Description:
Number of helices: 4
Largest sheet: 2 strands, antiparallel
Distance between the termini: 50 Å
Radius of gyration: 22 Å
Strand content: under 5%
Structural class: mainly alpha
Number of domains: 2
Strand order of the largest sheet: 1-2
Helix content: 55-70%
Mean pLDDT: 86
Organism: Planococcus maritimus
Number of strands: 2
Protein name: Flagellar protein
Keywords: Cell projection, Cilium, Flagellum
Order of helices and strands: HHHEEH
Amino acid sequence: xxxxxxxxxxxxxxxxxxxxxxxxxxxxxxxxxxxxxxxxxxxxxxxxxxxxxxxxxxxxxxxxxxxxxxxxxxxxxxxxxxxxxxxxxxxxxxxxxxxxxxxxxxxxxxxxxxxxx
Length: 117
């Protein structure tokens, strides 16, 4: 079984301290509408680290309407998954085209192989 901690103990402790700062900041009622940049400025925790907490589900974006993280492809602010809807659809379209090309190639190769017998 793989360990749950993917870093050394010191780094894990630093991550937990950063998480606690962010979490406690967001628990204050007046900070419910804070943006990612606001949280960064007030807590000193990097935007990247806060985004990581959001992607991991440690902080639920549904509880904080202005809090999101960048799409992995275009950097548009999103609240769940890794890609925004536009990038997700582009990815699926590209993947389907590649799979269709592979199917055509495989079917053509198979037909030529049968003819050689």
